[in-house]
Write a structure and sequence with these properties.
It contains 18 helices and 18 strands. A seven-stranded mixed sheet has the order 6-5-4-7-1-8-18, with helices on both faces. A four-stranded antiparallel sheet has the order 11-12-14-13, covered by helices on one side. It has a three-stranded mixed sheet with strand order 15-10-16, with no helix packed on it. The chain is globular, with a radius of gyration of 23 Å.
Length: about 475
Amino acid sequence: MDTLVIGIDGGDEEIISTLDSGFLSEFIDQNGTQNIEEDLWNRGWGSILSGQHGRTSGGFYEKPKLDGTHDFEQTFGTRDYEQNESLTPLWERLNDEGLEVGFMNVKTTMPAPEVDGFFVSGAGGGFKPSGGVPEAACHPTSIHNELTQSDYNWEIRFLDSGIKDIFKYIDVVKETIINRTEAYLRLCREFEPDFGFLCHTETVGIQNLAMAEIQPIIDSSPEEYNEIQSSIVELYRLVSGCVERVVDELTPDRILLVSDHGQAPYLHSVNVDPFLQRIGVQPTVGEAEQKSRTLIRQVGERMPQPVIQFASSLAPSLRDKAIRSDVNWEKTMAFGHRYVPGIYINDDRFSGPVDDNSYDEIVDQIVAEFNESDEADEYNMVASRYRSKHLETKQSDLLPDIWIDKPDTMFFEGEGEFVQRNSSYRSLADQDLDQVQTNMHTGKKGSKPLLSYDFEEPSFVSDSSSDLTLAYDLILDAALH
């Protein structure tokens, strides 16, 4: 193999260097890392695969449907790459240069594209991993049967797994990574690709669930680990060993190690709607209608958690509508949404009342009052104009009108108080895991992805900070030169 890319979902230099004493930490130590920063709304894998930010690709974690409603969606995949003339995905560029490729488990690649070589899509981008790897994730489709018979798991996420014991979950994650490694090596022997891209995605699930166990190791380097910490360290060393095995067998000339984002402890949630209501730009409905909507929401909240999770997976917008049960959309000037660190103006994109004549005044008012708020001062948040600065980009209609810079430890949940402490951030040993309601439990995405490589730095790499579109250029430079 000429070039091998190893993807680690949520791979974080500090975590790997602290927990892993094997191949991955040694690779980083010997080669260093690029100064990469991501805004955490943009899909990192989309930038790695296309060389474009979501402002061009549309690759965002949550984005408006732009159908005249206030509904959002998470979908992003192969067809988005194919239908956007601004994008040339890695596999297409490499095939055009005569290179055969072998991709496995990289997110935002459903369904599997037709390539010279083989392709096993990753889950994500709106495709849930429960139920096993589908045939649509495999090219050629003949490899689907082989993967199924070899106990290949598409991806193991904590909530989807149904497992409520952290040690059992870690054991299943280990098995998944080992089986994926075996499957990738078998396919590489069969197809002999020139270029390989293997991604492990379960590490981010562990980090999101158990960052309250990992962060104390980073902060204080304890001489002894508790039982959960010991199991997590063993997992990282297993991942490192599996990557080393792939490298030893495929003997690539060039190696790149990349992640879609870093990692951070999840300490506070943010919901801008209470703030917008406070300053008078998001009025609520009348008392009678609000009581009716509140009753519907309360009935939903009493449903068993598996029922709520199932309903949310089928129709996420229903959950969002229940949360915002008191919003008067006909008079609302602005609103926020889960996952988006910003504020949307309720204009004609959403069939809202804001027109061009009042747009600038409303944006300026919200920015000024947000930055003057006690919460912005206490939690180091800064609002600024955003969409108006990027009107020339292909996907400008998807963008929030106001962007909010904030610490990595904060996540925009779209419910609850304006700023709210994450009460789940404590040791898993003190918690009933049956009550975990989200995969982002004590950890969340961090803005510092991993990008390391073992070849001479190309001349186009600068000393200044960049985003993950640089990974696309580096991968092509390694594979084509």
